[in-house]
Write a structure and sequence with these properties.
This protein is mostly helical. It has one domain: Farnesyl Diphosphate Synthase (Orthogonal Bundle), CATH 1.10.600.10. It has a two-stranded antiparallel ribbon. Strand 1 and strand 2 form a beta hairpin. Helix 1 crosses helix 4, helix 3 packs antiparallel against helix 4 and helix 8 packs antiparallel against helix 9. The two termini are 30 Å apart. The protein binds farnesyl diphosphate and magnesium ion. The site of magnesium ion has 3 residues, from loops.
């Protein structure tokens, strides 16, 4: 057992080829999104160009990868999870487009490119985000449906994660906390909702696409929750330690905007320890898979060590 301040290093099985896995996830999700989305020439063309601009701007596709990895851990096929992986990526992209708006975090760069509203204007960026949210639910109807998980379950899962108690709650609380000193528990509340909820939803949906057992779903939920929290702590660390070029978005914005973050509340070193401890908790959640969750393990390690 690691002491509170001395987190054990985390490492995944070295034989797993994460690079090849990520490439296949990206190919599958890009192909799926291109197939499910209206063509860029489809009327109103500017709206569909705007949606596609952000969707294909070079995101890391981490939520689809988590979804596919969870499907594999439960003995399923990645292809079965494609509509669900595409749906979460649409919700994620909508949330980034809206997050970047002047009324929210007001950013000019995302994924190494000018933000959606910088290219298409604020009104069209709002509409592209709205359309991507609806698109997610339409795409999810293309899922096959499984004996334990119907379309109703899938719709509930997506709606819950995206709604006013999770993703939108987190964003509202994040904005409200700007310029204020908040307690670590409130920061945890924000991170659970604005980030962890959608990552957790991604792994749960992956499990559902493999018709996972209730015990597997519980393990995936535990894993997704902790990986999701670690993801935001790392994101906050990167904001203060990396360059804008590396991140593809404006670095150092959290300090300028007086955002509540782990580095601002507990400092960088403690933040790193927290991220490591959360990742260990995620690893521990995978125990019931008895070594069959290699991709999830490798992803958890990669997300902890990522530099962008
Ligand atoms: C970066 O993901 C995104 C986060 C760390 C989550 C931040 C949360 C929000 C912006 C919530 C916004 C919510 C609303 C309702 C507007 P990433 O590093 O995976 O990005 P990538 O896909 O570009 O790689
Ligand atoms: Mg924000």
């Amino acid at each position: 057992m690691a002491s509170r301040n001395q987190a054990k290093p985390v490492s995944a099985p070295s034989s797993f080829d994460l690079g090849a896995f990520l490439d296949s996830c990206t190919t599958l999700v890009n192909r799926g999104l291109d197939r499910f989305l209206p063509k860029a020439s489809c009327k109103p063309a500017v709206l569909h160009q705007s949606m596609r601009y952000s969707l294909f701007a070079g995101g890391k596709r981490m939520r689809p990868a988590l979804c596919f990895a969870a499907a594999q851990a439960c003995g399923g096929q990645m292809e079965e999870a494609v509509p669900l992986a595409c749906a979460v990526e649409c919700i994620h992209t909508y949330s980034l487009i809206h997050d970047d708006l002047p009324a929210m975090d007001n950013d000019d760069f995302r994924r190494g490119k000018p933000t959606n509203h910088k290219v298409f204007g604020e009104a069209m960026a709002i509409l592209a985000g709205d359309a991507l949210l609806a698109q997610a639910f339409e795409i999810a109807t293309h899922a096959r449906g499984w004996p334990r998980y119907s379309h109703k379950d899938i719709t509930y899962e997506l709606a819950k994660a995206a709604g006013s108690l999770q993703l939108v709650a987190g964003q509202a609380a994040d904005l409200e906390a700007e310029g204020k000193r908040i307690a670590p528990a409130q920061l945890r509340y924000i991170h659970e909702r604005k980030t962890s909820a959608l990552l957790c939803c991604s792994v749960r949906l992956g499990g559902m696409s493999a018709n996972c057992t209730p015990a597997q779903l519980a393990a995936l939920t535990d894993f997704g929750y902790h990986v999701g929290l670690a993801f935001q702590v790392i994101d906050d660390i990167l904001d203060v330690t990396q360059s804008s070029e590396k991140l593809g978005k404006t670095a150092g914005k959290d300090i300028t905007a007086q955002k509540a973050t782990y580095p601002s509340i507990v400092g960088l070193e403690k933040s790193r320890q927290i991220a490591q401890r959360l990742t260990q908790r995620a690893f521990a959640a995978l125990k019931p898979f008895q070594g069959k969750a290699e991709a999830l393990e490798a992803l958890a390690e990669y997300l902890l060590k990522r530099d962008r």
